[in-house]
């Protein structure tokens, strides 16, 4: 009998539920299977009275590469990401992301939907959609609700990779990795009620934008994915070659 290894590993460390994305074969892409496991783990953490906060991290060299185009095609990803981001924002416990590798495309939406994030020196970030004939439609909702829009425009429009220092500067990442210990200590020292009510204040703008924009952004994503240009871009990505418009 074959047993499928979990895509999300769970453990608890002094009141912190540590959830580790463990799907390195596809760079922790947001497949329907991984999202289902992550959703279940978040629900379990929400119910557990011993858990004060959640730490979301990863195995391998990539925190998250965005949607899993090979497993789920081009249509399911945006709606799945919207639901996951809403769950993260509405969870009554803070979610801290720890990034020690690369973050790409929809993975930036996952990162921005977390309440606090820290990243190491090896981390890199890129809104790679623009180079595929796409746009960071759904991922842009938490990014533009929380990051400096003027500073983010360069990276969204060019698809260039950028480092942790720039991610902190534009507000996509809260702090460098060395701040993690103090952040977790602060969360452990805070009351459950205080954290839940304080989190409502910090997520209000993001949730408002999610309610107002998610339908339009999901339709935009579907329209772009259905285009001939995006088909060429995705095919080039899967075949590991430049798209036809690259100069």
Automatic annotation (TrEMBL):
InterPro entries: ClpP/crotonase-like_dom_sf (IPR029045), Enoyl-CoA_hydra/iso (IPR001753), Enoyl-CoA_hydra_C (IPR014748), Enoyl-CoA_Hydratase/Isomerase (IPR051683)
Matching CDD domains: crotonase-like (cd06558)
Pfam family, one: ECH_1
Family per similarity comment: Belongs to the enoyl-CoA hydratase/isomerase family.
PANTHER family: ENOYL-COA HYDRATASE, POLYKETIDE BIOSYNTHESIS ENOYL-COA HYDRATASE PKSH-RELATED
Name of the protein in question: Enoyl-CoA hydratase family protein
